[in-house]
Amino acid sequence: MKLLVIEDERSLLASITRYFRKEHFLCEEATTFEEALEKIENFQYDCIILDINLPGGSGLQLLKFLRQDKKRDGVIIVSARDSLDDKITGLDHGADDYLTKPFHLPELSARVKSLLRRKYNEGSATVDLYGLHIDLTARTVSMGEQPVPLTRLEYDLLVFLITNKNRVVSRQAIAEHLYDGPGDQAPGPEFVYSHIKNLKRKLKEKGCKEIIQTVYGLGYKLAA
């Protein structure tokens, strides 16, 4: 899962990204309005952790842009503004949750994971599809009684394809989602092809049918 953390307080930004990376999230950072706007215009995130007060503009304007552009990125506002009116304004602008500073990182993590469960699996912490059982909390995959030993990137690739199961996902989108670094430096097609190949092989070894289809010239999709 890929997060964008938009926060101008650098010590807090470092703490948040360090915590989520330990929990196997991919994290990108933005510290100004313009930097954040460029990232949300060009890339897709599972969840955006958004401060309201930013150098150069308001986080609420970023949120307004996201929703007007029909982007589905989940958004959790983190703000020192703790009045009821501020919270209502944030939620009315399209935020999924609102957390007041100061907060404990485990609480932020719990809210991010809850948002992702609501967004992708109707609140459940598990996914059962194509004979596979995926535990989103433990980050494990099994086929019947057999565990499927996936690397972190292979697991993230499988979940990304499942959460986009009704659409073709481009190689560029997959590379940006898997790459733990600036989105504009994501690796090329060979990086994606290698992980797709390994994921297919591991699933097949455990008896899973061919569920990942190549759409030539476009990318990949899950079988209907």
Number of H/I helices: 8
Spell out the CATH superfamily of the largest domain. Answer: Response regulator
SSE pattern, N- to C-terminal: EHEHEEEHEHEHEEEEHEHHEE
Fraction of residues in H or I helices: 40-55%
Task: Briefly characterize the structure.
With 224 residues, the protein is of the alpha/beta class.
Architecture overview:
The chain is of the alpha/beta class and 224 residues long. The chain has eight helices and 14 strands. It has helices at 10-22, 33-42, 59-68, 84-92, 105-121, 152-163, 171-178, 189-205, and strands at residues 2-6, 26-30, 47-50, 53-54, 57-58, 74-79, 97-100, 126-129, 132-135, 140-143, 146-147, 169-170, 212-215, 219-222. Strands 2-1-3-6-7 form a five-stranded parallel sheet, sandwiched between helices. It has a four-stranded antiparallel sheet with strand order 8-9-10-11, with no helix packed on it.
Topology:
Blueprint lengths: L1 E5 L3 H13 L3 E5 L2 H10 L4 E4 L2 E2 L2 E2 H10 L5 E6 L4 H9 L4 E4 L4 H17 L4 E4 L2 E4 L4 E4 L2 E2 L4 H12 L5 E2 H8 L10 H17 L6 E4 L3 E4 L2
Parallel strand pairs: 1-2, 1-3, 3-6, 6-7
Antiparallel strand pairs: 4-5, 8-9, 9-10, 10-11, 12-14, 13-14
